[in-house]
Amino acid sequence: MRDFVTPVPDVDVVNWRGPMLSRILRVSAWLGIVACVPSMLITLQTGLVGVAVLDASVLALVVALYRFERIPYRWRAALFCVAPFALGIGLLGIFGVYGQLFLIACAVLTSLLLGTRAGLIASGMGAVALAAAGVLNVTGPEQLLGQRQNLRLWWLVIATNFALISSVLSVAVGLVMSRLEQALAEEIVLREAAAQQRELLRTFVDAVPDVVYSKDAEGRFKIFNRAALGAAGLTDERDMANKTVFDFYSPEFAERLHADDMAVLAGGKVLNREVTSHDAAGTLQWYLTMKVPSRDPSGAITGLIGISRNITDRKQLEEQLRQAQKMEAVGQLAGGVAHDFNNLLTVIIGFSEVLRADAAAQPALLESVNAIDDAAGRAARLTRQLLAFSRKTLLQPKILDLNATISDTGRMLSRLIGENIHFSLVLDPSISRVRVDPGQLDQVLMNLTVNARDAMPDGGVLTIATQHVQVTEALAAPLETTVGPHVMIAVTDTGIGMSAEVMQHIFEPFYTTKGPGSGTGLGLATVFGIVRQSGGSIGVVSEPGKGSTFRIYLPVVTEPPAQAEALIPQPVPRGTETLLLVEDEVGVRELARRNLIAQGYHVLTASDGREALTLVESRSGDIALLVTDVVMPNMSGPELVAALHQRWPAIPVIYMSGYTSDSVLQEGVASSDVAFLQKPYAPTALVQLVRSALDGTDHAPR
Q1: CA separation for the pair 339, 336 (Å, rounded)
Q2: Does 139 fall in a domain?
Q3: What residues contact 538, with CB distance under 8 A and at least 6 apart?
Q4: 70 and 104: one domain?
Q5: What sign results for the dihedral spanned by CA atoms 68, 73, 79, 83?
Q6: Which residues, 6 or more positions from 607, have their beta carbon under 8 angstroms from its beta carbon?
Q7: Is the pLDDT reported for residue 407 higher than 80?
Q8: Are strands 484-493 and 548-557 parallel, antiparallel or unpaired?
Q9: Which stretch of 256-270, 411-425, 448-462 has the lowest confidence by average pLDDT?
Q10: Domain region containing 297
Q11: What is the CATH number of the domain that holds 413?
Q12: pLDDT per position as a tens digit, 74-84
């Protein structure tokens, strides 16, 4: 990380000399008062008035320099160095060579405060002054040098030695100070670089969304980032520094974290596992935590470093994936069961219709037939719910005016709820049209209405509303839908509401909060399947005691709605053409064969696609129509159609199935290129569709 630190410019080392000079002046001023006042009294008593004046002047200079801190440093230091120089010069005339001590002090002080060069200049000035004083014979008592000849020469010798000693001291002090200045400058550079490095590291760590921290051997937090503060529900760093997990987490959770810390500190192993906690709002949060021991240069464990990543979103996605897989598995099972059950219901409903014709003159028998029809009808509705849940119902979408459709359905829905429930429609007249299967939409509204009715046993208000909404990216993500204009259908009740836990499972198949015998658990699962298969999305908002609101979002379309055609009852048609009937379920095949033969058709039957091809190859005549199941062993219905089209490209086809999810068939039915008959069906529905296909008239799936 050092390479990323911007170099620090040279440091002005005078900055540290200023405070040092101020301290020296303060000490010198106080010591000067203590020393100079007695000295002045003594010199005045002995008649040395000049010395007293000199002491007073020097003391006044020092005090003035101490008081006036705004004077520039170099002027202040130079004037301070003048004090010992003045004392030295003045005392040379009184005490002789002993005055050179003050001159040496001046040189050393100058070197200390102003550098080696200034110190050498001060040393030279002192030596010159000392030599001049001796040569001019103004140095004081001559007995200090003894009775010697050539005293002036001796003064030159003294001045030369003084210059040597003073220069050596000045250079020594100057070099020491220079080295100290260099070391100080390097230390300042290193400290500023370290500060920048720490700030860079702090910025980087704080920018990381993961929780990052370090602890000492006792588990106290030493370093941590903003995410760590937020995870602990704190905002002030002082609330976490040198604290343990016991200071801001619950005792149970803190004990678990502390046990993990102690395991890492004691064993020196890396810990990597998932932990759970609750945030300040009480929401469950998942963290993937890694803790590693930190060691000193000797290898001893001194603490630990931890990183925790919030994986709550990932956990939710995993749960959604598991839920989707479970729904898909249950959907496949439900679709398979419904398919087989529809075959059985086709036989039951078909032969019930046969019995009804035979029992027209027998009221007791006719009552039994009606009971069979009623049970078969309820079973057929149950299989439709299973198919809707598994999203394997073959939809017949139409462009609808939702307001008109909901208004028509509302009259039926009002009969489903009790008189103690106020039912109202709040329809937005500005909504656009949508493409949806009207029968499936009725099923959705009926299921939601029944669900709302059961949630208001003591009465309440049920409202169905429509509204034009613009789905944004923020709303599209949780709803798993597309961005753009939608029509929203809101079904709101004032019932008992639901908890958050219940809402997590509300669209699961066979999940119900009702008592035994009160529900199948397929109502809302069916709603979810129909809405999703229709290209829409659904969400729910609810709280216990505050009712529930289910919101369905359907994308808008711009095409005009299809014109409804009046249904005119038609007599059961007859014919004499040759038909090929392919059905793997024996009962369904036999029932269809009997019904078609009863209407005058010549019927060839086969149990699967391969048998049908073998039968066709053994015949020389044409076949007017193919009636085939979709899902069969050996060869499916669409594969059989593809093979027969090679021989009869224009042969009409009717598909039959309990369900289908084949994409080719879906596209064909949607474009009305093929006819489709949904099982279970009544015998009259089959013969009517056969006649329509042979005549080339409308054969929309039914």
Answers
A1: 5
A2: yes
A3: 479, 507, 527, 528, 531, 532, 550, 551, 552, 553
A4: yes
A5: positive
A6: 582, 583, 584, 586, 589, 632
A7: yes
A8: antiparallel
A9: 411-425
A10: 208-310
A11: 3.30.565.10
A12: 888 788 777 77
